[in-house]
Design goal:
Elements lengths: L1 H8 L2 E3 L2 H7 L6 E6 L5 H13 L2 E6 L9 H6 L4 H10 L4 E3 L3 H4 L18 H4 L3 H16 L3 E5 L3 H11 L6 E5 L19 H22 L6 H15 L2 E9 L12 E9 L2 E6 L1
Parallel strand pairs: 1-4, 2-3, 2-5, 3-4, 5-6
Antiparallel strand pairs: 7-8, 8-9
The structure holds adenosine monophosphate (AMP).
Adenosine monophosphate binds next to helix 3 and strand 5.
Length: 281
């Protein structure tokens, strides 16, 4: 009897869709945290939020090849399933979904989601096909899991924005935005940080601090022109020897560059060595 109880309370690892259908019942509030593994405290914060709000929580770990636009980037993306499972057990997650590529892409449906020209900004401009891949995988996962809530990080703001726009209306699912968790030097936690050395992390901290300062200046109306943003970009490139893909200020309602309503964010994508990092402030 005691062992049966332990078994029932244990985190369930689900690998096949048939097991997913058996494990999940649809009579409780289910929270879903989609991840690509390489879990860190940022992911943990999403899971804790889901556990607090929902009766059951499911976490998926799937490194989705379709959202990488470089094979090399996909290959070297950090993977550490054993450590991830330890973290998930410690957090008392109810279900962990670990699908294989074949299971996910068995149905060879063409990509349904196409970004409009006006949506091809920020990461969508520089990572062709990335968000189409993200929307496709999220559609496949949500269709199978039918969660009441999906918990996603503000760190990937454009991703969250597009998922809300494209998927919230198709399914009876609400996307909950969760704050970005940072280290002591203000660097956003990210699985890709595992690829950085100590001095790279320090550089990322300086970049973050500079952009936090810039945000304060914009709020105080001390930034009079776009030239200021351009000069900040040049300063960061020269000072830290980084390659900046974009550094832009956009409003958070529709992501256009009109920021008169004060609800704005500074978005950056940059490379330290060959590691691409994104953040927003
Ligand atoms: P990933 O495993 O990188 O695909 O991320 C899975 C989820 O965790 C996404 O919703 C991310 O936005 C979120 N996430 C990643 N890093 C952080 C962070 N530092 N703070 C909060 N959420 C994060």
């Amino acid at each position: 009897m005691f062992y049966l109880l332990i078994l029932l309370l244990q985190m369930k690892l689900i690998r096949k869709i048939s097991d997913l259908n058996k494990a999940i019942k649809f009579n409780y509030d289910l929270g879903f945290v989609p991840t690509m593994g390489g879990l860190h405290i940022g992911h943990e914060s999403l899971i804790k939020k889901s556990k607090k709000k929902c009766e059951k929580t499911i976490v998926s770990i799937f490194v989705n090849p379709k959202q990488f636009n470089s094979k090399n980037d996909y290959k070297r993306y950090p993977r550490n399933l054993n450590t991830d499972l330890k973290i998930l057990r410690k957090l008392k997650v109810d279900f962990v979904y670990l699908p294989t590529i074949n299971q996910i892409y068995k149905n060879k449906e063409p990509l349904k989601f196409k970004l409009k020209k006006t949506q091809k900004i920020l990461c969508a401009k520089y990572r062709k096909g990335h968000f189409e891949g993200v929307l496709d995988i999220m559609n496949r996962l949500i269709k199978r899991i039918l969660p009441k809530f999906v918990f996603m990080g503000e760190k990937d703001f454009q991703q969250l924005f597009l998922i809300k726009k494209f998927l919230e209306n198709i399914y009876n699912t609400k996307v909950i935005m969760c704050k970005t968790v940072r280290n002591n030097n203000k660097v956003a936690l990210s699985t890709r940080n595992f690829l950085l050395n100590r001095s790279d992390v320090i550089t990322a901290g300086y970049v973050a601090s500079k952009l936090i300062d810039l945000k304060i200046k914009i709020k105080q109306n001390r930034v009079k022109s776009k030239l200021h943003i351009k000069n900040t970009k040049i300063y960061l490139i020269k000072k830290f020897n980084i390659k900046i893909e974009y550094l832009e200020v956009r409003n958070i309602i529709n992501l256009n560059s009109n920021i008169t309503n004060k609800k704005f964010k500074i978005f950056i994508a940059y490379y330290i060595d060959k590691i691409r990092l994104i953040d927003n402030f």
